[in-house]
Design brief:
The protein is mainly beta. The chain has a single domain, classed as Rieske Iron-sulfur Protein. Helices cover 8% and strands 38% of the residues. The strands form 2 sheets. Strands 1-10-9-4-3-2 form a 6-stranded antiparallel beta sheet, with no helix packed on it. It has a 4-stranded antiparallel beta sheet with strand order 5-6-7-8, with no helix packed on it. The longest helix has 11 residues, at 9-19. The termini are far apart.
Length: 139
């Protein structure tokens, strides 16, 4: 008989570590207050924003019309799209003014001294699916 394998909490932590995609993408010194910096993390476009002393990471495209977020501007804790005027909260990714209806996915940021690490393995925003209402046509 072969060895017995354990699939407890420790094993689950190891599996989760393999799915995390954490990369060093910049340093704090590279981001001025309210500056947007486009980076790539595991093949995904991500923007970094230094706002009020905190670093935020959001997916690199608008959920309304795919406008690249590095062309946007930051004002009073919000991102504003130059294409259609949509506004998103930097801290939550939630839209605060139309036309967008879905949040921009945001990612976990870790800072170790000066390096900025971003984890795109899991979003911090609610899933987009939670914002959609399914309608049953038979009712």
């Amino acid at each position: 008989m072969g060895p017995v394998r354990s699939y407890g909490k420790r094993s689950a932590r190891r599996r989760k570590q393999h799915t995390a995609r954490v990369e060093q993408v910049a340093t704090v010194g590279e981001l001025q207050p309210d500056e947007i910096k486009l980076v790539e993390v595991s093949g995904k476009a991500v923007i970094l924003i230094n706002h009020a002393g905190a670093i935020y990471a959001l997916a690199g495209e608008c959920t309304h019309a795919d406008a690249p977020l590095e062309e946007w501007f930051v004002d009073d804790g919000c991102l504003t799209c130059p294409w259609h005027g949509g506004v998103f909260d930097i801290k939550t990714g939630e839209p605060t003014a139309p036309p967008p209806m879905l949040p921009i996915p945001r990612y976990k940021v870790r800072m170790r001294d000066d390096p900025i690490l971003v984890d795109v393995g899991e979003t911090l925003s609610e899933s987009i699916a939670s914002h959609l209402t399914l309608i049953n046509p038979s009712t």
